[in-house]
């Protein structure tokens, strides 16, 4: 089986994915890290020196590669399932379970306000109010993609271990 974690930036995909993979003895792949290794550049540099379209193309080819790894937990980037054919690629792949880590606009804003420097899409937003407004609109556009997941976990007020436990309950 391949477990795919989706969700907005700051929803905990990487920390939950790592913990989940340890628990069930699977490999853990973070798509952003994979892209950075492949490009030999940070995501921030890719957006700065190239552009978002270049990043999305790289994201798509990287997704096609990592999805072939069996017995893996894969944390996607926040935008991955929302572009091109990426969502149908994972939905049609055998033995893939898609898990949406669903955070509220408020909790995502709180988390991202201290973690936006390395996230080019939000790094320019100066105030918490501007961030809240941006995330509200952006999540409205992206939710229809995330909501097509097999399993949806509401993550507000849950620790990483509690999110992992909720996923395990749904899966097995
Ligand atoms: C993005 C999310 C980021 C990263 C890139 C674009 C997005 O990943 O892929 O900055 O479009 O939401 P995280 O969700 O891991 O922050």
| Level-2 CATH architecture of the domain at 2-103 and 146-155 | 3-Layer(aba) Sandwich
The termini sit apart by 12 Å
CATH topology (level 3) name of the domain at 2-103 and 146-155: Rossmann fold
Instruction: Tell me the name of the CATH class of the domain at 2-103 and 146-155.
Output: Alpha Beta
The strand count comes to 5
List the ligand species. Answer: shikimate-3-phosphate
Beta-strand fraction estimate:
5-15%
Mean pLDDT: 97
Query: Helical percent range?
Result: 40-55%
Biggest sheet strand order reads 2-3-1-4-5
Radius of gyration: 15 Å
Sequence of secondary-structure elements: EHEHHHEHEHHEH
Describe this structure as you would to a colleague:
By secondary structure, the chain is α/β, with parallel strands linked by helices. It has a domain at 2-103 and 146-155: Rossmann fold (3-Layer(aba) Sandwich), CATH 3.40.50. It contains 8 helices and 5 strands, in the order E-H-E-H-H-H-E-H-E-H-H-E-H. It has helices at 13-24, 31-39, 43-49, 52-66, 86-91, 105-113, 128-146, 160-171; strands spanning 2-6, 27-30, 72-75, 96-102, 151-154. Strands 2-3-1-4-5 form a 5-stranded parallel beta sheet. Helix 1 (13-24) crosses helix 8 and helix 6 (105-113) crosses helix 7. The longest helix has 19 residues, at 128-146. The two termini are 12 Å apart. The model has no long low-confidence stretch (mean pLDDT 97). The structure holds shikimate-3-phosphate (S3P). Shikimate-3-phosphate binds next to loops.
């Amino acid at each position: 089986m391949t477990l795919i974690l989706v969700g907005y930036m700051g929803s905990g995909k990487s920390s939950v994915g790592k913990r989940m993979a340890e628990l069930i003895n699977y490999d853990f792949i973070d798509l952003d890290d994979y892209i950075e290794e492949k490009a030999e550049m940070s995501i921030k540099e890719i957006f700065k020196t190239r552009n978002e379209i270049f990043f999305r193309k790289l994201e798509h080819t990287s997704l096609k590669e990592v999805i072939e790894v069996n017995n893996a937990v894969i944390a996607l980037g926040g935008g991955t399932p929302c572009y091109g054919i990426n969502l149908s690629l994972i939905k049609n792949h055998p033995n893939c379970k898609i898990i949406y880590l669903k955070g509220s606009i408020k909790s995502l804003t709180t988390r991202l306000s201290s973690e936006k420097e390395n996230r080019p899409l939000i790094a320019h937003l100066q105030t918490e109010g501007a961030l809240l407004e941006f995330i509200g609109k952006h999540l409205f556009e992206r939710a229809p993609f995330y909501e097509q997941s097999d399993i949806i976990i509401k993550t507000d007020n849950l620790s990483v271990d509690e999110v992992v436990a909720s996923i395990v309950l749904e899966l097995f």
